[in-house]
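Repro:
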Amino acid sequence: MCHHNHECSCSCGQHDREERHYHKRQFLTKAEKIEKLKSYAEDLKKELQAVQEHIKELSS
C-alpha cells in the first residue's frame, strides 16, 4: 500500500482505487439490476452453448 499523501505523483494507482471504493454506490436501481440480470443470462447461454459444443466434440 502506498503511504504517500493524495497530492503525490507516484503513479501507484492506490489513491484512485481508495477514492473510487469510498465513493462507489452500493445499491443498484431496478433498471440496473434488470440489465445486469439480462447480461448474466446471456453469458449463461453462451456458456451452455460452449459446453454443449464440447460434449459434441468429445462424443465424436
